[in-house]
Specification:
23 strands; five-stranded mixed β-sheet; alpha/beta; eight-stranded mixed β-sheet; Alkaline Phosphatase, subunit A; 2 domains
Length: 538
């Protein structure tokens, strides 16, 4: 019988907590609201970046993106208008850093992802038992605990662009009345802007339907009582001054956890949570000790630790470089602009496809933006920003120059400096230098091919047998890779569509003939050549 809990993640994109259970009167989210009624809401949950790939790299590794070189948005493809940039590249993260799912797999969990990754590096073959649009816990071996991730993408900012920019499958019949939505005061209140935000609520309804289907399948399989469900977003709202920014609009996310029999139903906690904490929390709940290098901290279970601050970063987005860091406690937000000489709005063509951004540019050119709507249009920035999110939830009134908040400013400034010193900040290094240190002579390094080392009474493991051979039983097989930090995958299946196991220790060889295939990969390196060998155990 299975004793350890199953764990299910539902990762929604580009949203603040625009759910009915969070008090939003416009939202149509009955399935998410039902999930919250059976679990706990975390109103103080935040991402480490206001954009997907840096945030997702922190989630999958348990390491801040700024400490492992995954902080620049979009590393794996190149913009034709800026060929001088050091992209494309797959980030070469420290050799001891793995996707946390490898620790789960080594601990006996069946891990599936359906199917977004976007980690700033090519996902290693060792990260998941299944990574595809068909990946599902239903494919696991009998009685194996599972960790399954589902990624509905309907709410991505591109869903607000309008049907002319979307494939047929993503086109929606408008339902939300634009007059009902609440426009943030720093955005223009025009019919085009309201229509875009209304469309966001329509896409959220579709995401809620997706959530209902997945949770329904959990019920159908009789697994709801032994599965911990997490629902969260990879970052905040896909709106100007939200997405790509460390303001709350860009990093405050919904987080709901349902844990039958342990978390009280229909509860809420003001506990601070960062998405960098997710991996360590899952490992802890699974009975696996998180590695010491991971920078998050568990927010559930026996090893729960309370946070005083969360931290976030903004760096290059697509074509334009920037460097902003932020620290937040339960009330105050501190932001440091390392480039105060820059305007807030840099050239990001993808962002400029947004209808609300187009409205902002139009009205700015016409001189019609007023009050907070002009904040993003400034051509320079303050060195520091400080906001009281309790009295100023839209983060409009910068208190950094107010002497009444001098002590708070000093405290928050120190918190940010201490964090940067503790985890390291590769934002201090130019991107081209960072990439050059990873790719000698501009060439991506390649993982060494694995070698097979049988161990038995007559073959004590002193030399590999690359093509295999005959060994006396009982026998074990070690698989070795010379690349520091590489992970190894192996299978005894033939053909293309096979299940690759994670190598975590010597493999018992059965009597008779066994054919083993193996591949190795270090994150950021090219995958090794595949090796195959046959062993006859007598």
């Amino acid at each position: 019988m299975q004793s350890r809990p199953n764990i299910l993640w539902i990762s929604i994109e580009d949203i603040n907590p625009r759910f009915g259970c969070y008090g939003d009167p416009v939202a149509r989210t009955p399935n998410i609201d039902k999930l919250a009624a059976g679990g706990c809401i975390y109103p103080n949950a935040f991402s480490t970046a206001g954009v997907c790939a840096p945030s997702r790299s922190a989630i999958i590794t348990g390491m801040y993106q700024t400490s492992i070189g995954t902080h620049h948005m979009r590393t794996t493809h190149q913009n034709r208008d800026t060929p001088e940039m050091p992209t494309p590249y797959s980030a070469v993260i420290p050799h001891y850093v793995k996707t946390f799912t490898e620790y789960l797999r080594a601990g006996g969990y069946y891990c599936t992802n359906n199917s977004k990754t976007d980690y700033q590096f090519t996902p290693p073959i060792t990260a998941w038992d299944e990574l595809s649009d068909e990946a599902h816990w239903r494919n696991r071996p009998e009685n194996a605990p599972f960790f399954s991730v589902f990624n509905p993408t309907m709410t991505h900012e591109s869903g607000m662009w309008g049907d002319d920019d979307l494939p047929e499958a993503r086109k929606l019949e408008p339902k939300t009345n634009p007059d009902d939505v609440v426009m943030p005061p720093y955005l223009p209140d025009t019919p085009k802007a309201r229509a875009a935000l209304a469309r966001h609520y329509d896409t959220l309804e579709k995401a809620d339907e997706f959530v209902g289907r997945v949770l329904g399948e959990l019920e159908e399989d009789g697994l709801a009582d032994n599965t911990i469900v997490f629902l969260w977003s990879d970052h905040g709202a896909g709106l100007p001054r939200g997405k790509r920014w460390p303001y709350d609009a860009g990093i405050r996310i919904p987080l709901i956890v349902r844990w039958p029999g342990t978390i009280e139903r229909g509860t809420q906690t003001d506990q601070l949570v960062s998405l960098v904490d997710l991996g360590q929390t899952v490992l802890s709940l699974s009975g696996i000790n998180p590695p010491a290098h991971m920078q998050g901290q568990p927010f559930l279970g026996e090893r729960t630790l309370e946070r005083d601050y969360i931290f976030a970063a903004r760096d290059r987005h697509d074509e334009s470089y920037d460097m902003v860091r932020a620290a937040r406690d339960k009330r105050f937000k501190y932001i440091r602009n390392f480039r105060p000489d820059l305007p807030y709005l840099l050239w990001i063509p993808y962002r400029n496809r947004h209808p609300i951004m187009q409205e902002m540019w139009r009205l700015h050119a016409e001189g019609k933006l007023e009050g907070p709507q002009t904040l993003l249009m400034q051509n320079t920035r303050p060195i520091e920003e400080l906001y009281d999110t309790e009295t100023d939830p839209w983060e409009i009134n910068n208190l950094s120059g107010n002497p009444e908040y001098a002590e708070t400013l000093i405290r928050m400034r120190k918190a940010l400096d201490d964090w940067r010193d503790e985890v390291g900040d590769l934002g201090d290094m130019p991107e081209y230098q960072m990439v050059a240190s990873w790719y000698p002579n501009g060439e991506q390094p390649k993982t060494a091919a694995p070698v097979f080392v049988p161990i038995s009474a007559t073959s004590p493991g002193r030399a590999p047998l690359p093509q295999g051979g005959s060994v006396e039983g009982p026998a074990l097989l070690q698989i070795h890779c010379a690349t520091q930090g590489a992970s190894v995958a192996w299978t005894t299946e033939q053909g293309e569509d096979v299940h690759w196991n994670l190598y975590s220790g010597p493999i018992p060889l059965d009597s008779g003939q066994t054919t083993i295939r193996s591949r190795a990969i270090r994150i950021g390196f090219k995958e090794s050549e595949e090796r195959e060998a046959s062993f006859e155990v007598t």
